[in-house]
Amino acid sequence: MSPRSGRIAVVTPWDVSSPRSWSGVIVPMLTALRDEMGEVEVIDVPSDVAIADRVRARALGMRGALHLSSWSPPTARRRSRAVAQRLEELPSSVPVVALAATPELLAVPRGRRIVQVTDSSFAALTRSYPAYARLTDRGRRVAEDLERRIAGRTEHFLVATAWSADRLVVDVRVPEDTVTVARFGPAIAPVRPVGGKPPHDGRPLRLLLVASDWERKGGDLALEIVHELRTRGLRTTLTVVGARGRPLPAEVTHLERLEPQELSGVYATHDALLEPSRASAGGVVVTDALHHGLPVIASALGGLTDLVVDGVTGWLVPFDGTASPFVSAMETRVVTSDLPAMSRQAADWAMREASWPMWARAVRDALERGPHRPHGG
Questions:
Q1: pLDDT in the model for residue 2
Q2: Which domains, from first to last, does the chain contain?
Q3: Where does the UniProt annotation place the signal sequence (predicted)?
Q4: Per-residue pLDDT tens for 234-247?
Q5: What 3-state DSSP class applies to 251?
Q6: This prediction's pTM
Q7: CA 211 → CA 216, 230, 241, 315, distances in Å?
Q8: Which residue of 7, 25, 37, 200 has the lowest C-beta tally within 10 Å?
């Protein structure tokens, strides 16, 4: 398969026309795949839910529990059969590239080659993401079994970070040589050329928090960090974009959900991204910030340890669930750093190591390995 000569079928449950789909990466993924591969057939996935899952979701919801219909066999069979029927219209030689679409592959015929682009293992996400805290033990077991069945028919996986790759190998038990780390490019590219940030020189340090999930993103910690820094006399401002878990102090600026170009402008007017996350697999916001020349102050956990090069593109902070390590890092490392140099290094690293053309080439490389028997076949 040479550049621009391939034909692939992309399967994804996400809206391929929305700039917000899968944290904003679906649209640039499809653009990059078309540029790299040539012909891309997008397979629509129906959003309907099986009656059995509707009933179970309602019953568990009344008890305060969570049921994930998309990861339940009745709905997975229903949706994946529609995908399989659509694939019948394409030659059997056309491979499937699945974008965050594991359950939707259940009914895909075994003769069809599959490459999955995914976040991480289901177990890793449910262990670390607060959104899954109410999922029942039975729901976890069923979803993990579904994931393993489909993994056994998948030739190759692509994930954005080494942490995610490790979780697939350990949790799903896929062979290491079937997993490639291919960093995502930016969901939001700079609308203007990126220039270095101005020196700190005692002016207020302008911090930015972008949070779609207040708890997971450590929004409460961000407020504590900035309050403590200001108490100690360090002039600091904080802008919160997106979700907020509680009323914010008057000195914190809150911006509602912004359009991509608007958020690009916000990146350009701040000095560093504050990311005291409790969990992170792929770090799309971090990648966006780096592309805008915004160094990142991040928890040293999950995929963040792949995206933030300590002392080069930002600062990794040991995470203990409190604000203290971040306050200490800010006082001893961040405010004493060469901010313009860090800004240039962040943008240079992102362009070199986290771009969509590189990602699309990794997808093509996975397909060019040639048809072979999947590990679970």
A1: 44
A2: 6-185+355-368 (3.40.50.2000), 205-353 (3.40.50.2000)
A3: none
A4: 999 999 999 887 78
A5: coil
A6: 0.93
A7: 8, 22, 6, 19
A8: 7
